[in-house]
## 1
Amino acid sequence: MGDSDIVQDFLVESYENLDRLDRELVGLEKNPDDREALASVFRTIHTIKGTCGFLGFNKLEAVAHVGENLLTRLRDRQLTLNPEITTALLSMVDAVRQMLSGIEKSGQEGERDDSLLIATLTRLQQPPAAVVPNIGNLLIERAAVTQEEVQLAARQQAEGDPRHMGEILVDQGVVRPTDVVDALYVQQASRASSTVSDSTIRVDVGILDKLMNLVGELVLARNQVLQFANRLKDPGFQAASQRLNLITTELQEGVMKTRMQPIGNIWGQFPRTVRDVALGCGKKVAIEMEGKETELDKTIIEAIKDPLTHLVRNSVDHGIELPEERVKWGKDPTGRLILRAFHEGGQVIIEISDDGAGLNVERIQQKATERGVITAEQGTRMTEREIFNLIFLPGFSTAAKVTNVSGRGVGMDVVKTNVERIGGTVDVQSTLGQGTTMRVKIPLTLAIIPALVVTCGGDRYAIPQVSLLELVRLEADEAGKKIELVHGSPVYRLRGRLLPLVYLNQELKLALDARAASNGDGAVNIVVLRTDERQFGLVVDKINDTEEIVVKPLRKQLKTVKTFAGSSIMGDGKVALILDVLGLAQRAGVVTQTRDRAMAGKATESAAAAGEKQTFLLFAGPGDSRMAIPLNTLARLEEFQVAQVEVSGSQWVTQYRGQILPLVRLNVVMEERRSKLRALQGPPAPDAPPIQVLVLNHDGRSFGLVVERILDIVEDRADVKSAATRASVLYSVVIGERVTELLDIPAILRSVDVSAAQPTPVARSAGVAN
Amino acid sequence: MVHTSQFCTFYLDKLLFGVELKGVQEVIRTLDMTRVPLAPAVVSGLINLRGQIVTAVDLRRRLELEPSPPGMLAMNVVVRSEDGAVSLLVDEIGDVVEVEEDTFEPPPETLRGSVRTMIIGVHKLNDRLMHVLDIEKACQMTDVVESAAAGR
């Protein structure tokens, strides 16, 4: 045995630890989710175990070891604490204490038999569902034997009978051998399932990052192969490349999943944060969390941690009132803070709601006017929501008193900037006296994003889809008239509102060389973008296509170029730069760096939006009839080559973003003379022109509506209505001073059996819909 | 025993330069390049090096030499810097030379300016001088970037 001084120190330390263990374990039983207490218990046991091993107290070490294993399971959330586990852990503490007193008296561990305790602790390590039922119990369940008979056999086993339970029972003739065999099968099955339940392994993040990079490369290679396949027109090669396409998409999703982490990982610290802040300002706050398991890419989790923490602190500090005040308003003195996270349309929404005082519109307005952020006149024209959004301006704080937590006029603008940096948005909703909800919308991942590829000055640039609102093309003859100048600054009237125009070639100082002019036809392509609540039109030479691109960060040498967010490799192997829409807007002066003028434009925007106008997509249907759908039902406009269309049954389908998109042909749906239908069966003629498709989401499913031609997007009141003259039409309305048929989408879907095609979740990104 | 080291050599405006061979990832012929608008002039563009996006530095400009004649196809010397791979654009590739330590001399006092920070010194070869380039300094262009940004 070691030096007696060391042993003495060990004993003193251990007794203290054991006393604390008792308290903590009982506390844990009341509140099994207390991670910190659990971690503390774990550390204590771990210390005891380590010292025992060092001093050579093997029995003590063995007991502490199994206890530690059990605690590891609890800490890793493979098990939850229940009274049985607590009892076992407490009896372990007792056993350790007895051994320690033995050591104190005799210097020896004593002749103890702890095998029963060790067995109990070991057994409890199995997750409850995975506890392998013993054969006796299985037989009792099947009423093959009685409880007494099993107990008798068990006693025999305990007395040293080496035979198995089943054997004993069969030998005694109380059970048929077939029953025992059946029961053994059941037991085997439950053993197999128990190994599945803990089938996770730890993987180095570096390996996952590398895998992600490789998948990125594969996506690029896939894009290249697809381009070749389209050019070569070899059916065998096309089929193989389509398969490659699907597999790559699945692999990409699979690898992306491995990098996903539940948002609960960062929420874990919030109860503590809330407690500290609440204590600091004398408030009572209960925190609730919903959707802890919602998963996000690792890099995004890291990026939103700080903004979220700030929002949470802010809610407690500013949102929730003091207990006395709450009582006065007839509320529970304890305020509620609710964190919710969920998926919606390929994005993750995180809401931070409190049931506090809510935002005071008048006070914010007054403050904004005082600070010169808006003029009094602007203030009167602003909507409530616009006023709420004023709190995201730099240097804005309405807190009556500045606390050490928040309310110093810094924070909300930083939150907004940080969330926008990863392509997200923050929004605020509030009802005076009832509470405030902060809504943060963020993309699932940053590594691979959908983007619009445009050409300017002979080079391609990618524009992240999140900033994209719509595309406008002005033909050469109308471009001159429709682009007007406001003291030299070009603008375009987009549905009656002036849209500032930014010429990409000018902003990037691209020489107007021959390549740029090769566009030739004089048409103007405007990409309508939104950033920081402002819209602007980016004029480019050519609009190519939307593509899933792999984002590669720019190297240090180019970090100062704020107009680019990164780079990516295109299908042909060349590099394209990804535009940073916010950076570009700032450079062009659309968004001022301090955002102080942002509000002036917003007021006019809302004024224009007044009046109950709706936005419609106009298109030509069968027989060139003029038809429309509300723009908000539209997810995207696509053009498919005839070769991409496949036939499943009598249904046209196409592979679209890794899913099967049923194509509904309006000319088939609306054809009244059934006899003509025959001609429309089968695939499209191989030499037919590309088909125009409106991608719509209905009831959580995507489908494509094949139309003749896309006409325009118009905003109209559409209040002159008349009853429909044919099925699939809701009613006829006057849009843009012409009679237009408004389609009844549910009716169209009922008339064709789109359910025959594979149900597809809502398309991952809504490009056009605003 | 005399300590020797190996250098990858290349030519810029008829001058012979060398970088330590262990810092060179590979040497490749001309690749398609994507220009980066608004970037400092020394950045020629971005190249796709087997899926890795690499910044190409116009070494002539970086070293304040005459701009390369139009139509000349530059070679890429891809070096490993702290911030990942960077491609140095050079006129022509030379041999790999092995030099002894005692042929080295620091640059003359008359060499001034930012170039001095990039040229560690010269090795006196039999027929000519080989300028030894500091890879890290040549790739690190915070000074250049800042001046470019300030001028904007």
## 2
Amino acid sequence: MGGWVRNGTGRKRGSWGTTVLVVIVLAFWALWPRGADVGPGTPREGRRAGPPTELVATVAAEEPVAEEPQVLPFLPEEEVAALAVEDVRVEPAPLSASTEAISAAEALQVALEEFGLPKGMDAWKAAEPGTTLTLCRFTDLDMGRELSDGTVDLAHEDELVWLVTIPDVEFPIHPPPDKAHLYPHHYLADMVVVVDASTGRFIMAMSVDPQ
Amino acid sequence: MKHLPGAIMGRCFWAPRHPPWSDGVGRAQFRRVLPLVAVCLLALNQTPTARAAGNSCDTPGNFFAGTWSAGGSARYGVKAVIEPDRANLCGETSASSAWVMLTGSRYGDGWAQIGYTHEGANACSYCRGGFHNFSQWTRCAGCTLNTEYYAEPSDGQNVDEYRVVYSKRNDVLRMVLNGEIKERTDFDPLAVWSTPLVSDLFGETWHQESDVPGTASDRVRFGQVGKMRWDETWVADDDLWIREPDVWRYHAGWVNRPTRFETWTHPI
């Protein structure tokens, strides 16, 4: 490929082949059907929390799809309760809490970017099938500073959070040297990413045995 | 997780049946796939990579450099401040970490640990090149594992302090980051594990071709190393000894035994 170089007279000497290739690449890039089958608002097995309305509208404008019911980013109460693990207490947030929370899309973006999703990439398209988002009141009975009387000043008590639950995640195992051969590199569990719904700050992620 | 670059990269494995230079038809095919190749290269360029992905990851396993108290006396806590280092990975399936741990002295006992980990994009489903503080504990070999990830380790003047301590009030092990309890076991290790508990302070990799934290010119310091006695006071741990690193390129050495040692990889 000739590329763009100066030919000694100050004028750029370009290769038509290069130009055509660049145009083809850009066109290819733009038209490549990136995750069209998993985009927001499309039927997707396991996805229970929907994208914000404006994203649905955008997709609908591009390609007419069967009308989707508006899905609020809340789970039924019994499913929220199932998220509770040892020393973590979660309760469904009231519907009114959504006005003081970042959107589900923003929460998912924070969660996936924390785990390496490239900046600017659409988290709705990148999310695994079965990923759910739940707006909850969250209390972690472990986290915090111990006071002189032995009680713990909880760091996260009744906080409004988004719980991003990703099923079947491989977690690394870091065993001690003398027991390493007893363990594989990974174990499989659901991952719950906790995102502060008020500030959009990543709090933590934890492995949770599938219910 | 599949995200866009990964999905596109998956298509990169497709190849024409004949070499593109073999005949005219092949050449035409080659021209047709050129844009695809270009797209693949673009996608590769956008994929997050380790600081330097050098050799291929040919030798998987768990490889360590550091110190422990195997065969030592009783202890009920371990602590250290550890300088953060996003060590070189041989590829995106590998990982490099540094941590402190208490474990039972019996073969099948579990552990409780806290530290930091740098994981390649494909080291696990959601590692994606992340760099996080983390805790992990399990009761026994074959028991449920529990992992939590926290924010990226602190760098600069205030590096993070990691502790695993036994709580007499709750009969559990707590994993503590900078004085804040992050996690605890759901069992009493003194009732379940064989004692004395063992302190482990290690840099670890998943492949011999990856690096443990630290380089010859910028070693990773494990400082303020200590153990907790039953009366909950912290003292220097004279039982610690450097375990022979598992890989010839890995090193661990005392700077001021037994409260400060370093790990590094050389040559990197």
